Amino acid sequence: MTPERLDAQRVSGKTDDAADLADLADLADLADLLVDTVDGGASVGFLAPLARADALAWWRERAALAAAGHLAVWVVRADGTGRIVGTVTLALPDKPNSRHRAELVKLMVHREARGRGLGRLLLATAERAAAESGLTLLHLDTETGSPAERLYTAAGWTRAGTIPDYAADPTGVLRPTTLYYRRLPTG
Question: How many CB atoms lie within 10 A of CB 157?
């Protein structure tokens, strides 16, 4: 599986160039991606096995939040089929004292598309869009020792600390979580 183009498309938010996340084909692709991510062992908030119907319901909830401007979602499509093989989301601030920051959540790349730089592409896309929108700080949490943690470290994110037994992995075993942040360029 190779990406048809190495760019990420925004599929949500309050911009004129964003496609509609509520598109049923996109929601189905995103549900399949979430199921694949959980089946692959990534700790993204779900236990295995994750039913496709549950993944689809979760993405429908995200679509409503994106339409309301609370989330910004980007995807990467592959194989000339248009199928979504990667995604990243920014959870945008909702409180007056946090308008300068956002949380990076659910960076996922399908197992068949990994190792091709899509995670780095999605991360850079979200960082660039956040900076362009005036945000100055991003933060995230990830399972300690995971491949995702290596990605964030290599991309220059700063480790803030580790919380033991923070979240269960897909098999239900409690794992530590490492918190990261990234200051974005201003001006």
Answer: 23
Side chain identity at residue 117, one-letter code? G
Three-class DSSP category at 173: coil
Q: Which two tokens mark 72?
A: 């910004």
81: Cβ contacts below 8 Å, ≥ 6 apart: none
Measure the CA–CA gap between 103 and 151, rounded to whole angstroms: 16
pLDDT band for 3, please (50, 70, 90 cuts): very low
- Alpha carbon of 23 to those of 18, 75, 126: distances in Å? 12, 13, 21
pLDDT(91) > 50: yes
Q: Cβ(142)–Cβ(113) under 8 Å? A: no
The pairing of beta strand 83-91 with beta strand 9-10: unpaired
pLDDT-derived band at 78, boundaries 50, 70, 90: confident
Distance CA 124, CA 119 (A): 9
Contact (Cβ atoms closer than 8 angstroms) between residue 93 and residue 99: yes
pTM, rounded to two decimals: 0.92
- Assign 8 to helix, strand or coil: coil
Sheet holding 158-168, edge to edge: 9-10, 71-78, 83-91, 101-109, 137-143, 174-183, 158-168
